């Protein structure tokens, strides 16, 4: 064999060894075979190797055939033995399985029993640990059902802080915690319901509490609030003797059925319980805010006055009782639960309330026109402020309110006294008081402290210089002062301050009320001249009463007389002004009466010859003036003198106006001479001194203008007039060119109506002279202009 065949054979052997050595995967080996061109040779080689192995197997089987047979025979024997053992084993296994099953059952039963026992023991332990919780919870439910919220809250605290932590690992504890949260809210809501009931109750009983508090204050301060309630009524309707109808109060202004305190009338325990509950529930601030909010609402309701409060004192009393009751309750809560209500909070509420109180009382009292009711209001405000002052509240605004009410009270009094004075004026007959007995004389003296030695010595019947108006007005002024004093009493004012106040209000009465009434009186058209004269006389004596009124005020107030000059009464000035006004009205009335006489003047301006005596209407007028001036004896001298002077001047003015009137177109010389006779009669009246005290020629000077004009026209002394015109020594100084022209033109017009005047040379000369005089008078008039 050559080398190549040997190598190929060796390679095939290696490949066969690899195939024989590997049991499952011959891929690489076959790939190596197929990569060469020796597949057929390898296949042959493989077949050869298979045959070789088959021969080896046959040899081996032949060598071990007998042993195999024996082994099979042994196996068959062993099979029978194995079957018998298998049967025995199965029987034993069945017995063991049955026993084990029974044992397992017994063991399971034992385990179950032990587990049950253990569970029972555990359950008992658990139940024992849960029993306090359950008992407490049941107790809580029972307390909630019985509405015992304060004990329920304690039970709730025990559950939450003591019992529930011990069973926190149980699931039902979570449910219980949730239910306790609901219970907590239920307690909170229930306590709030109790609080609302308390607030409703306290609103109902606050007026009663305030009434009791104000009554206690009145007793402690010894305040008699009804002392002045009816006194004002008897000051308005006095008799002349100063006696008054007195109406005593029928019952106490204040009465309560029982002497109870705020604690007796209202149960405050809901407030404390609710406060404690909310404190425990960590809602104290919420509770405090709610309480204060609700109480502020109630305060606003209490501060709303009744709509008809101004009509009766009961409205004011109800209003004040409600407010006092509110603050008394709050004061009690502050003293027992300071965290709920403190002084700062109450001061804030009071500062708001006092302004509204002052405004409400000021508004409603302004409608009041009854002095007696205003005194009751004043007493109530005083008692109200005193009550709240004892609880530590500032009442300065109420003091100012009282001063405002006092001013309004004075206005009401003055309105009342307007009617009082008017009634006195209407009832007076304006004749001097005449008394016929000592008793009547004494009554007048007691009502008006007038003293006159001549009158006292005079026999009865005696006649006072004044009418009944004087003592009545004087008594009414005293009554007014006493009525003003009624309000100023008990205001804790100094004597001097009361004195100044009375003087100020009295001055208001004198300067406004009495002065206005007197001014209205003296302007009444129905008053006669004699009545006006009596009114003027009355003012003289009313003026003298000013000192007596000042003395009366000083006695009432007890103020030092050295200091009383601070506010003097203005009565003298008031009555002096009224008297001046009355005097002017006397003068005007005198003029009106004179006008009535002068309206009867019926001059015949074309009269040829005068009657030889003064006109009848003028004689009647002078007779009237003479009788009138006799009634002036009680007037002051200057009044009578002024009246007389006014009368003379008025007569002169009327006569001058008649001469110069445009209605009179012509005047005859006879008519002019008749006017001259009337002027002479007036001059004789003036010279007779109808009123004493005039200087010589004073009354006659009233007719000087007329006298000079008439003398000039009657004497025809024009040369002297023109020569002395403008000189102080002129005889006709008071005759103006205009007046002379007016009368001359009327004389000329009268001459024109005389048919035969143109036929006489003297008349023609006179006419020429008149024209010359008129021309010169007009030149004087133009030059003076």
From TrEMBL:
It comes from the Eukaryota. Keywords: Coiled coil, Exocytosis, Transport. One of its GO terms (cellular component) is exocyst. Residues 45-214 form the Exocyst complex component EXOC6/Sec15 N-terminal domain. Gene3D superfamilies: Dsl1p vesicle tethering complex, Tip20p subunit, domain D, Exocyst complex subunit Sec15 C-terminal domain, N-terminal subdomain. GO terms for biological process: Golgi to plasma membrane transport; intracellular protein transport; vesicle tethering involved in exocytosis. Coiled coil: none annotated. Residues 397-746 form the Exocyst complex subunit EXOC6/Sec15 C-terminal domain. InterPro entries: EXOC6/Sec15 (IPR007225), EXOC6/Sec15_C (IPR046361), EXOC6/Sec15_C_dom1 (IPR042045), EXOC6_Sec15_N (IPR048359), EXOC6PINT-1/Sec15/Tip20_C_dom2 (IPR042044). Belongs to the SEC15 family. Component of the exocyst complex involved in the docking of exocytic vesicles with fusion sites on the plasma membrane. This is Exocyst complex component. It comes from Daphnia sinensis. The lineage of its organism: Eukaryota, Metazoa, Ecdysozoa, Arthropoda, Crustacea.
